[in-house]
Design a protein that fits this description.
By secondary structure, the chain is an alpha+beta fold. The chain contains three helices and nine strands. A hairpin with a 2-residue loop joins strand 1 and strand 2.
Length: 165
């Protein structure tokens, strides 16, 4: 858990701190900008890491079941719908890939993708360069996009489940 907290804090706090540091440097000079950037980055990283852990405890299955099915893998994720990233929880069961919003989004939703409808799983880049995206291509040609932790694990477990059918 500590490793997850540190990783999340760094992955969110460093980019935010850099951006805010540059912003404050333009407004107030180099030293105030550096101090503000570091402060903002540390605080933002800690707040986001705490929120992620709170959601993990709240949304993960306690008994290894998700709506009556065995959970093969689950983790926090964002689902992109109509250009909006919605935070929540992604769960893989033997028959489906399910996303549930965590309730703190402007728009909440649920999506269930039957394993037999998945044609391809594609690793993607978020914002063009962050290697944490997961594309799910369906038989209909529709593509669902997710941002996930443990992308390699997601690719592996979903591919295994598709091969099982």
């Amino acid at each position: 858990m500590i490793n997850r907290l540190i990783k999340t804090s760094l992955l969110t706090g460093v980019p935010f701190g850099l951006f805010m540091g540059l912003f404050f440097m333009v407004l107030h000079g180099i030293l105030p900008g550096l101090i503000s950037g570091i402060t903002c980055g540390v605080l933002f990283g800690l707040i986001i890491a705490g929120f992620v852990e709170f959601q993990r405890k709240r949304m993960s299955s306690k008994d290894g079941k998700f709506e009556g099915e065995i959970v093969l893998f689950e983790d926090g994720a964002n689902h992109f719908l109509n250009g909006e990233g919605r935070g929540g929880w992604l769960t893989l069961t033997p028959s489906r890939l399910a996303f549930r919003s965590h309730g703190l989004n402007v728009n909440n939703h649920a999506i269930d993708i039957d394993i037999t409808e998945i044609v391809e799983i594609i690793p993607t880049q978020t914002v063009g360069f962050i290697p944490n995206g997961l594309g799910v291509v369906l038989k209909t040609g529709q593509k669902e996009s997710f941002v996930v932790n443990n992308r390699r694990k997601w690719l592996s477990v979903i591919s295994q489940q598709i091969a099982a059918y």
